[in-house]
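ok here's TIM-barrel fold metal-dependent hydrolase:
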Amino acid sequence: MSTAIDLMGERFLQSGDNADLPIVDAHHHFWDLQRNYHPWLRDLPRIPFRYGDYEAICRDFLPEDYFALDAPHHVVKTVMMEGEWDPRDPVGEAHWATTLNARCGFPNAMAGQVWLDRDDVADVLHEYKSMPLVRSVRHKPVAVPRSEHTATFAAPGSMRCDRWRAGYALLAASGLMFELQTPWWHFTEAVELARDFPGVTIIVNHTGLPADRSVEGLRAWRTALAELAGCANVRLKISGIGERGVRWSVERNGPVVWDAIEIFGVERCMFASNFPVDSVVVKLDTLFAGFKSMVADLKPLQRLALFHDNATTLYGL
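and the structure:
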């Protein structure tokens, strides 16, 4: 498999043709709702969601479902993100993903669920150390709407919460990276986290959630992103940039992607699908084709880095 992937990368570098481009999908989900409990996908009423009505994704989504959607693109490896599995059993999803990998070869790495401010955090991290599939963990810190955010924000469960930070401090010894999903106006707290714990790699999910596409909103997002980019231990996933009630398009999302790459640099960014969640606003083929068109003017080596090499290196694939 690895030899075939290496040859695919070499073929792309020679041709420069996006049709030959191997892809590592650095952020997606699998779930089996017939067997496993994801509260937000199974319980009624449905929770408020940034894309609006998400009933369409409240169904099983397994590797065979994913790969039925990816043609004509060459997704060669994937990184599965925790899907808000039953919080009473944080490691259960990683055990399930391990059996999934044994059955079909996917996912090739994953981010496990953790609760940094819970008493079981040390035990959960210890168990993940014995699971080769797990490379990182995610715990969404408490966040508030931009209108309610202040410079001194430090709510329980937030990135300035002493208990939350005590759990975060254990990550360096665990060797696991941290997946940060939070709106960009909380990036000041994220900068503090990155600087206070330089031994932990932070991987920003969904480009910092730039949902406000007003001139002022995008300007503030760029400023926050640039501040966080000043921390050498931070990487950026270009994913999850859809808008509520708006079909995903290059015209709407190209400027966000170009700014993100300019701010973080090609070497610290990677593309990802966030499927099946982003299927609410876009088809997988359209998404990957759109990402490819956005960076068509870059050199082949840079495109290979964004779609494949950066994620391969970061997640040890």
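+1. Residues 267 and 305 are 7 Å apart (CA to CA).
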